[in-house]
Amino acid sequence: MKKLHLNSILFALVFLFSCKGDSDPAMRTVKIGGLYSITGNWSSLGKASQSAMNLALEDVNNFLEETGSIYRLSTVVSDTKLETTTALSAIERNVKDGVQVFIGPQSSAEIAAIKDFVDENEVLIVSQGSTASSLAFNDGIFRLCPGDAVEGEAISRSMYASGKRIIIALARNDAGNIGLQTSVKDSFVNLGGQVDVILPYSPDLTNFSALIQALRSKIQQYSDEVGASKVGVYIASFDELVNLFSQATNDQILSSVNWYGGDGVVQSAALLDNASARRFAIKTNFFAPNFGLPAQPHPDLNRISAAIFSDSGIEPDAYALSVYDAMWVIGKTLATHKNVLTDYEKLKESFATEANQFFGITGPVLLNDKGDRDIGSFDYWGIVEENGVFSWKVVGKSN
Fold first, then answer.
1. How far apart are CA 145 and CA 17, in angstroms?
2. pLDDT higher than 60, residue 12
3. Which helix (H) or strand (E) segment is 234 a member of?
4. What pTM was computed for the model?
């Protein structure tokens, strides 16, 4: 894929046209692109991310004005629907319009789809949700959430500590969910457990009858060997989990063991709204990990969370709140390091420097040498019923 423009020429033009609308000819408006799933799978994160970005835009621009910076930020959001082709089309379109810095996309499959374009066109990406260790490179793609190795180890410890000794592991066929499945397998085996890995299923799968039949056989076999209380099912998925759960809801064998999930289903509105799928989740004590916030909350957490909830109707988790932090790191990078937008290597280095010095709503943003968040704890989310009302609640924490 050919590079669309030479960056030095492209962004000089962007600054020129941006300045025409500013009263001060020295002012420069930098457009930040948002690549979020607003209407597709994992839209709970996409909608909350958009609200977090809008809130941060006002806060960061106030900071830039107060510090006398010549920069101001603006935003443009594209709905990727969590689709790889849509994500690639969106970034291509936005780069043609002069956007060089993006927050999102939120899935590893989308990151894999845009990587070549990002490398060739010298774009800076800050993903709030991609976890696949297979995408950990020293490139222009930064990830502000803990990777699959950290998440897989955390939930494996929790499953093992609860008495599980055999885990049947499923995954949607995409980079992020396969990475989680692999991490769980490696971590759980290292603890002394056994993992039966089922081949990943197609993202387009809607009829899970064949998979359900295979699961029934395996659950029955292992339950006969060690007892159902020592057997669990782990599934790394997005909202297609709803179809599986609704088709399994009356199956006595599938509901005889505990189920666990990956971060891609936490706070899923689709799961919460489907009565039969929701019933299966409650019956099997299903929970899934989500990147957790620091034990000592940031003083602005309540204000920011309330504002995001008011705008989106979604209680923001750490993934969504990392979008707010990402906007701040971008703003500080522009304010502190001169001419970074015309020097791609300097832009990447400066962003990493500012990230590693930043303590945000999600805590210290410490990146490893691949540009990915290095540490993290997890909250476990499940569906609970209170007075006839169903909702997602934190039901535990990683140990």
1. 35
2. no
3. strand 231-236
4. 0.85
